[in-house]
Prior knowledge:
It is a single chain. The chain is 0% helix and 46% strand. The protein is an all-beta fold.
Amino acid sequence: QVVLVESGGGLVQAGGSLRLSCAASGRSFATYVMGWFRQAPGKEREFVADISRGASITYYSDSVKGRFTISRDNAKNTVYLQMNSLKSEDTAVYYCAASRGCSSASVCFAAASYDYWGQGAQVTVSS
C-alpha cells in the first residue's frame, strides 16, 4: 500500500513557474515507476510525464516537453514536477501516481498502468 500526497499547486500568471511535490508513504518507493497526470474540466485525464525507478529515464507528453521537468528523490520518497513557462491550457488538477507493474517508464503512459493515486493538486494559470 502506498499513499501519495501532492503539494505545491496554486494560482500563477501565464509565463510563470510552479513546482509540484508528491510525497509517498512506505519503504518501497524506489520500486515504482512514478507518473504525473492532469485533468482539466470536461476533459479526460491525460499523461504528463513519468520517470523510471532509478530516475535515469523520463518521458513527457508533447504538450509539456521542454517546459516541464519530472524528477525524484528516492531517499526522500518524493517525486517532483517543475513547471515553467506555464500557459492557460495547463490549468488542471494534477495527480501523481505510482506503478508497480510497468516494466519501464517507456511503457507507462496509460492511467490504467498505475496502481496508486494522489488526491490531486489544483494548478490554475491566469492569462
